[in-house]
Amino acid sequence: MRLIAITGGIGSGKSVVSRLVNVMGFQVYDCDSRAKQLMTQDSMVRQQLAEAFGEETYLNDGSLNRAHLSAVAFSDPNALTRLNAIVHPATATDLIRWAEEQADAGATIAFVETALLRTAGLDRVVDDVWHVTAPEQLRIDRVMTRSGLTAAQVKERIAAQRDEDTLADGEHILVNDNITPLLPQVIKLL
């Protein structure tokens, strides 16, 4: 089975491309949503996060205190490194299991949506990379609209992921600038 990564910086439109290929009948593993599930449901991940970032990492109802974790992780590079060292291996293991299930079910192509392809080591797991790009101001506007973050907060997250947003050799570029149609670009790469 061919496993293709859909990657790009925050607000670039990875999710739009993921929804498009999903509508076309392909399965998509969403690293962000799966990581959030693992942080809530996996007992080992929960324990490691609580030890690293304090008991306030989880609310009284057991749900993840995203505001606390984001505030800590995006304001301190060392904290972000600790967070990634806990969450990325768990997500990679979960992705590999999921990909094996897709192959066993007869899939010939499946996708993984991830903002942190290289940081999470997923570049070593996938067969191909589709890198979604968009102008930075458009990305900022998109994220502000959907999340309520300020421009400064979005720029902080873009800066934190700058290395991930750099194109690597062999990656295919998909332009998501609200002008260039995506569907022909996707069809060309399949």
Question: TL;DR?
Answer:
By secondary structure, this protein is an alpha/beta fold. The protein has helices spanning 14-23, 31-41, 43-53, 66-73, 77-104, 136-147, 151-160, 182-189; strands at 2-7, 28-30, 109-113, 128-133, 172-175.
Characterization of the model:
The protein has a single domain (2-189), classed as Rossmann fold, CATH 3.40.50. The model has no long low-confidence stretch (mean pLDDT 93). Helix 2 packs across helix 3 and helix 2 crosses helix 5 (77-104). The two termini are 13 Å apart. The longest helix has 28 residues, at 77-104. A 5-stranded parallel beta sheet has the order 2-3-1-4-5, sandwiched between helices. It is α/β, with parallel strands linked by helices and 190 residues long. The chain has 8 helices and 5 strands; from the N terminus they run βαβααααββααβα. Helices cover 52% and strands 13% of the residues.
